[in-house]
């Protein structure tokens, strides 16, 4: 249903204004600042000098190559781990598929920087591996603290996206081509390479794009593990340019613009390639699942079990053991709950950080869902150039790396012409969460709206209902399942958010993520892992409560 022309401009204007303030204005200023480094000082001098500095610094070329090759390697390893999982879930009679699917969701819910911290505790000299199993071979430790170790940790946090995408794609593919090939005598290998792989290619590419963009923009793993592996990566370098003295904001903005460019090229190039191989829509029909004998069941669960051990059990065990360990004697630790009691002491810095994360995440999730639902509704019920521009603005925060958005927000709200003192307050972080994560709420609402007709809205409008009444009494109840999922997703990602938090929080304030990062860097590892455990358990408890209340 198209909005009537006499009232269409106001809803569209409000949506464009909201998206422009949260995403459009900061990114435009970032781009202009990268071209004119003296822009915030009111001068247009030094045009392109920051980009020339990139070309004149050989180390930056190595940094760019490291970031692109690392993100590409993480994508390939995630494909290797995830594609077999998706196939086993979609096309075989694997027992316990619900549990197998849970093993894929757990690493997705675990912040990659916490997995990296846990692996450092296991693999470092004198770590858990040395204490419990004896001295680790030097070659194995050197391999972990290298390019491939950093790649492995990130891939173990990301392969679930690939697996779930491949499962969904295979479940929706028609079986008639495979059945015809079997009747003609084709081998399973030939069927996989000549029929299934081309049909799966769009899902493989799109899930790989998600992993590539997440890796390219990830700050936690490069900052925590990349520095120890002597692997300088672009997000960590941008962070240090912004936070270390002397601050080089010009170079940070130019590198951020380059990172943004790489992300956009990867996104639209990958989508173009995926579109070339997209299959026409058809109904999957009856799915005949491949039976697995006892040996193949064992092999399949060995694959899932091995990945679950590496991606979840091992880092979680290291995290939990560190949080309750006091000191080590004869290869075993004495256990204590002192770290938890220190965190939960009223007035403590840890409890303050946890409460700050809770209210910020709840507020950001609520704002994202409310604004995202309305923007999605207006976009779905209008046509023309304003709607197309609105869709483009709404997608920017999802495409742009988070550290780039954080740098853009610093520029935008610390500019001399801003009359409101938002920068260096906790409200700046709330604004950042909304700007970065509103796209998730938009995607959930758009997906739900695509299957909802406009007949009830037309009928209500004919009976004299206002646009606000139509939206609140008809549209929102139909969007409720999608908005609950969007709220949960946004709450969880805000609770674990690191890069925007560490760049934008005012002095003396912490979130749970910055508390974990800072305590680990300062050597108080037990306190850091206790906070990590509480944060993950709290996120799971909120998710379980909302799902139970929903049912």
Structural account:
The chain is mainly α. The protein folds into two domains: about 60-280 and about 305-320, MetI-like (MetI-like fold, Orthogonal Bundle), CATH 1.10.3720.10; about 350-550, MetI-like fold (Orthogonal Bundle), CATH 1.10.3720. It is about 75% helix and about 0% strand. The chain is built from 24 helices and two strands. It has helices at about 10-35, 50-55, 60-90, 95-110, 110-125, 130-135, 140-145, 145-170, 175-185, 190-215, 220-225, 235-245, 250-275, 295-325, 340-345, 350-380, 385-400, 400-415, 425-450, 455-460, 465-495, 500-505, 510-520, 525-550, and strands at about 325-330, 330-335. A two-stranded antiparallel ribbon has the order 1-2. Helix 14 packs across helix 24 and helix 16 packs antiparallel against helix 17 (about 385-400). The two termini are about 30 Å apart. Mean pLDDT is about 80; it is low at about 1-10 and about 280-285.
């Amino acid at each position: 249903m198209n909005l009537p022309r006499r009232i269409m401009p106001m809803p569209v204007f409000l949506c464009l204004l909201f998206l422009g303030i949260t995403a459009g204005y900061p990114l435009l200023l970032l781009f202009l600042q990268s071209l004119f480094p003296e822009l915030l000082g009111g001068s247009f001098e030094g045009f392109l000098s920051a980009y020339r500095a990139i070309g004149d610094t050989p180390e930056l070329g190595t940094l760019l190559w490291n970031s692109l090759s690392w993100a590409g390697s993480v994508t390939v390893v995630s494909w290797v781990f995830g594609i077999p999982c998706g196939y086993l879930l979609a096309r075989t009679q694997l027992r316990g598929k619900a549990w197998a699917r849970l093993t894929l969701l757990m690493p997705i819910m675990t912040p990659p920087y916490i997995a990296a911290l846990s692996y450092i505790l296991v693999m470092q000299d004198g770590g858990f591996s040395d204490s419990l199993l004896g001295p680790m071979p030097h070659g194995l430790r050197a391999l972990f603290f290298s390019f491939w170790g950093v790649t492995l940790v990130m891939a173990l946090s990301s392969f679930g996206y690939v697996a779930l995408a491949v499962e969904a794609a295979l479940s929706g593919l028609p079986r008639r081509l495979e059945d015809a090939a079997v009747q003609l005598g084709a081998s399973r290998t030939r069927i996989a390479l000549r029929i299934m792989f081309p049909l799966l290619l769009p899902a493989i590419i799109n899930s790989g794009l998600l992993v590539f963009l997440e890796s390219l923009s990830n700050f936690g793993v490069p900052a925590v593990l990349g520095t120890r592996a002597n692997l300088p990566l672009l997000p960590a370098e941008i962070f240090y340019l912004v936070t270390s003295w002397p601050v080089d904001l010009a170079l940070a903005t130019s590198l951020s613009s380059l990172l943004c460019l790489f992300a956009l090229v990867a996104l639209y190039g990958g989508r173009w390639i995926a579109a070339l191989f997209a299959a026409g829509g058809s109904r999957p029909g009856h799915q005949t699942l491949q039976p697995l004998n006892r040996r193949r069941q064992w092999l399949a669960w060995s694959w899932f079990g091995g990945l679950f051990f590496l991606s979840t059990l091992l880092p979680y065990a290291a995290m939990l053991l560190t949080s309750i360990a006091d000191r080590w004697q004869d290869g075993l630790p004495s256990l204590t709950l002192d770290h938890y009691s220190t965190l939960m002491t009223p007035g403590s810095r840890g409890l303050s950080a946890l409460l700050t994360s809770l209210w910020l995440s709840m507020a950001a999730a609520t704002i994202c869902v409310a604004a995202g639902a309305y923007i999605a509704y207006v976009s779905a019920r209008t046509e023309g150039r304003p709607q197309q521009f609105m869709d483009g603005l709404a997608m920017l925060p999802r495409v742009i790396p988070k550290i780039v958005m954080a740098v853009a927000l610093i520029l935008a709200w610390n500019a001399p012409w801003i009359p409101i003192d938002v920068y260096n307050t906790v409200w700046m972080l709330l604004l950042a969460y909304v700007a970065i994560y509103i796209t998730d709420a938009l995607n959930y609402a758009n997906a739900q709206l695509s299957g909802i007709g406009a007949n009830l809205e037309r009928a209500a409008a004919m009976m004299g209902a206002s646009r606000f009444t139509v939206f609140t009494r008809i549209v929102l109840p139909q969007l409720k399942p999608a908005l609950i999922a969007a709220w949960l997703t946004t709450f969880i990602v805000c609770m674990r958010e690191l890069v925007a938090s560490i760049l934008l929080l005012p002095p003396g304030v912490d979130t749970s993520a910055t508390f974990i990062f800072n305590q680990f860097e300062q050597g108080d590892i037990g306190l850091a892992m206790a906070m990590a455990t509480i944060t993950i358990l709290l996120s799971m408890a909120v998710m379980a409560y909302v799902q139970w209340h929903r049912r």
